[in-house]
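My current task is to audit a protein record that another person submitted. What it holds is a sequence and that sequence's fold in token form. Thanks in advance; the entry in question is below.
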Amino acid sequence: MRILDLISPKDLSRVAKLQMLARQVVEGFCSGKHRSPHKGFSVEFKEHRQYVRGDELRSIDWKVYAKSDRLFIREFEEETNLRCTLLVDRSGSMRYAGDRSKGLTKYDYAQQLAASLAYLMLGQQDAVGLVTFDDDLRDKVPTRSRPSHLRALLTALATDGSKRETDLGGVFHKIAPKLGRRGLVIIISDSMGDVASISHALAQFRASRHEVLFFQILDPDEVDFPFSGRIQFRDLENVSREHTVDARSLRDAYLKRLKQHEQELQEACRKNRVDLVPITTDRPFADALHEYLALRRRIR
């Protein structure tokens, strides 16, 4: 049975909308002057060597011959396709949406960012896989490079977020042994978890020689805490937990704790040579794609 036979017409509609959005984001991004530094399978010039009898004439560098009156062959080094796994957080904390994000939850943003990255990379003939998670592994889509693979990725991404808690470190420890040969790992999460556990898991990815990019998705409300007066906060990972507090008196303590968490996460990523990209849900997706391409250019 095909994967598309297992989902409802409503879910199919969501997949189609996700594909359309990904296409619009990527095509709009690529229509400018910015081009991807990585074009999938290709050959890259390596060095010259002297011509010997039997070499193909079309491999001769005639410009060098014109300058030196000697025959040299241009040798090329073959590049393999990029192999990427997208790790997308669908835990309860990703369901938050503030006014400035125009109703877009962090999970909505993560879905659309992952879809855009998948669309971009498959268009470059790169291989893309996907794992969604909360406190455990949920959907897993194997790594493939054919264009038709996009539908399977989008079908998994279109799944609703959960109300479960986050366990980034524990989940990453489970994922790392399943990734196979070295490649690129892109984490899309709000990073709401124990940083020491996350750091240990990132070290496990790096020990397997994977390159790691970490898109930290936050709502603007989480960054500057704009609330005032008495307000009720509900735990999105445990809806039975609610607290009514004076937001003004809580603000300083919250911002101090957030700053500490951010510094610890930055240090964990720096120590493990992981590129951390903080991004808020009010920023255009093109910004995230620029970050991705800039980092890809650097780590190559």
Remarks:
- DSSP finds nine helices and ten strands in the chain.
- The radius of gyration is 23 Å.
